[in-house]
Amino acid sequence: MLIFERSRTGCTNPSQAPDDDSDISGIPTSLLRAEPPIIPSVSELQTIRHYTSLSQKNFSIDTNFYPLGSCTMKYNPRACNKYAMLPGFLNRHPGSSDRTGQGFMACMYELQEILRDVTGMAAVSLSPLAGAQGEFTGVAMIRAYHDANGDDQRDQILVPDAAHGTNPATATMCGYQVREIPTRPDGDVDLDSLRQTVGPRTAGLMLTNPSTLGVFERQILEVAHIVHEAGGLLYYDGANLNAIMGKVKPGDMEFDVIHMNLHKTFSTPHGGGGPGAGPVGVNERLRPFLPIPYVIDDGGEYRWAVEEDCPLSIGRLSAFMGNAGVLLRAYVYARLLGREGMQRVAEHATLNANYMMRCLEDKGVEMAYPGRRATHEFIVTLKSLKDETGVSAMDVAKRLLDKGYHAPTVYFPLLVPECFLIEPTETESKEELEGFVEALVEILKEAKADPEMVKHAPYTTPVHRIDEVKAARELDVAWQIPEN
Amino acid sequence: MSEIPSELRYTKSHEWIRTMDDGYLEVGITQHAQEQLGDMVFVELPEVGSTLGGGEDCAVVESVKAASDVYAPVAGEIVEVNDLLRDAPETVNNDPYGDGWLFRMRPIDEGELDELLDAEGYTGVVAADS
User: Fold this and answer.
1) Domain of residue A438, residue span
2) pTM of this prediction?
3) End-to-end CA distance of chain A
4) Which end of chain A, N or C, is more open, meaning fewer C-beta atoms within 10 Å of its C-beta?
5) Could you say which DSSP state residue A370 is in?
C-alpha cells in the first residue's frame, strides 16, 4: 500500500501542541500557493507506521544473508556511519574556505593516499559521484591522453565478453567503438583473438580482474603487454577489488587507470540511486588528466588542486568534490582496517567463497568453472536441473527467499546458462554459509520431487510470484490520483 | 535440439537469414536464441534506409533476462522493419522464423551470403553452445 492510498481528506496532524498561527501577511500574494500541495493527508504517527512497516518488509543485509554476486553485499560497520556524521562534518559548508576545512581535507587527502597505496597507482581523485561516473572519467582520461599525444586515430575500446555490462556502455558514452574479445572455456581471455584485434585503432582495453566469471585472469601481464605494445592503455574496473585488496595491486598488473566502487569494497551505502562515489586512480602518464578538485599537501597545508594546477585535467565532474559524506565513510572504514585489515578482507572473502563452493561441489552441485579456484565469488550452473525438471535458476532463486536467504545474482554473467553468481563476502560466519548451502541443496531435491511447487515460489514473502513479463511489458510505475 | 529450418542461412550470433523472391534478405533470431533469452519485452529495430556493415549491431532484443544485440548478417541497406514487434515483442518467441522476423535488407554484395552458415553449420554452433 502506498502512503497516498492511506491519505484521507482532512486528516491533518493536530497534535497536542499549541496551534501554529504563523503570520504570513508579509509574504507577497504572488508567492503564495493557489492550491494546496498534493501530499498525503496522514498523521505523523501514521507516516511513521507506514514507513516502519515497509522497512520491515525489506530483505536486507541487516536481516538476511545476501550473497548477490558481483555486488559485494557485506556488512558496513556502524562506526563508519557514526564518525562520518560528526557535527563538524555534517555542518561544514562545501564552499567554506580551505583554512577552516583542514580537518575534512586531511581526511580526503589521507583517503586519496590510502586508495593510491592499496591500488598501486600514482595518484587518485575522489571526485566522481558514482562507479559509473568513475568509469566515464577513466575512459575520458584515456581519450585525453591520446588526444594530447596527437594520436587521434584510436577509436576503439576492447572489452572481453566476461566484462561488466557497464564497460561497453562507458566506452560508447565516451565516443568509442566497442570490440568484444572472447573468453576461453577456462575463463581466461582468448589471447590469440586479442592479438588479432589490437592495433593502431586501439585506445585501450577494459578489464575486470578477477573477472565477472569469478576467476583471476592468470595471463594479465601478457594481456597488458599486448595492449601496451599496440599503444593502447589498460583500464581496471574496480568492481571486484574486494577479492584482491591488499594482496595484488592493479598498478603491479600494469593497469594505467582504475575506478573503485567504494560501496562494494569500502563500506559505503549500496544502491537506491546514490549518493555514490567512484574514485579514480592513475599511473604517472595519466596523472596530468585527473579530474579536479583533489586535495594536495602544500607544505603542511591542504588545499584543493584547481584548473591552474592541472591545465590538462579533464575538468570537474560535480560542483564541489564528490559526495563528501560517502567518502568520509570510506575513510573511516579504511582507517578501521588498516593495511593489514585490508589483506584480511581479501583473504576471508576468498576463503568464504571457496569454502562455500567446495561444500556445494561435495553435494553434487555443478560449477561453471570446475577445477578453478574461486576468487571472492563463484558460478553455479543449474542447466542440467532445468533440462531434467523444467525448474529454472530463477525458480530456485525465488524458492531461496522462502528459506530466508536473498537469492544470488541470476542469469549473469550471460555466458553461463542458468547460472547463479554467488558472493558470500568476508563478513559472513561459517554457520551462515553452511545454512545457505543446506537450503540450496534442499531446494534442488524439492525441484526433483515436486517441480511445480518450486516453480510457483515464493510463498512466505509479502508479495508472491510476480508476473515479470507483464511488469516489463506494461510498465506502471507512477501513482496517479484516482478520478472519482 | 531446437528447430533449425534447412532452407535458411545462419550466423554464429544466432540470426537467421531468408532470401526472399525479390532478392531482399529477411532477418530474425533463431528458435535457440529466443529460447535462451526467454520472454521478450522489447525489440528495438533499425531505421529504414540506414546502411550497415556486415556484423554491425543494428537491433536490440530485450527479454526479462537480458538485452542482446542483433547484428546485420551482411553489409546492406535496411528496407523494411517489422513494426508489429513494437506492440507485440512476444511474436519473436511465438514464431521466430515467421511473423517474428526483425528486418529486411538489400545486400550490397550477394557473394557475402556464401560466407553464412547453413543449417548443418548452425546446428554445430548450437551444440557447442549447450
Assistant:
1) 378-422+427-471
2) 0.88
3) 19
4) C
5) T
Candidates A166, A411, A470, partner chain B, best to mutate (most B CBs within 10 A): A411
Residues A238 and A294 in one domain: yes
Structural contact between residues A257 and A235, judged by C-beta atoms closer than 8 angstroms:
yes
Contacts of A128 (CB under 8 A, 6+ apart): A134, A136, A137, A259, A277, A278, A279, A280, A291, A317, A322
Question: In this structure, which long-range contacts are made by residues A95-102, counting pairs with CB atoms below 8 Å and at least 24 apart in sequence?
Answer: A95/A320, A98/A301, A98/A302, A98/A303, A98/A304, A101/A302, A102/A301, A102/A302
CA–CA min distance B112, chain A (Å): 22
pLDDT(B130) > 70: no
- For residue A147, the distance in angstroms to the closest alpha carbon of chain B comes to 26
* Grid cell 578477477 in the structure block, residue: A210
Domains contained in chain A, number: 3
Lowest mean pLDDT among A4-13, A338-347, A446-455: A4-13
Among candidate residues A101, A103, A121, the one with its CA nearest the CA of residue A112: A121
Q: Which of B36, B41, B68 sits opposite A472 (nearest CB)?
A: B41
Q: Residue B53 above 80 pLDDT?
A: yes
Is B41's CB within 8 Å of A469's CB? yes
B39: chain A residues, CB-CB within 8 Å: 468-469
Given A337, A368, A400, which residue is the final one in a domain? A337
B41 to chain A nearest CA, in Å?
5
B115 in a domain, yes or no? no
Q: Give the pLDDT band of residue A274 (cuts 50, 70, 90).
A: low
Q: Is the peptide bond before A458 cis (omega within 30 degrees of 0)?
A: yes
Q: What is the mean pLDDT of chain A?
A: 93
Reduce the DSSP state of residue A424 to 3 states and report it: coil
Look at A1 and A218; give whichever has higher pLDDT.
A218
ipTM over 0.85: no
Residue of A383, A388, A418, A469 best to disrupt the B interface, most CBs of B under 10 A:
A469
What CATH number did the domain enclosing B65 receive? 2.40.50.100
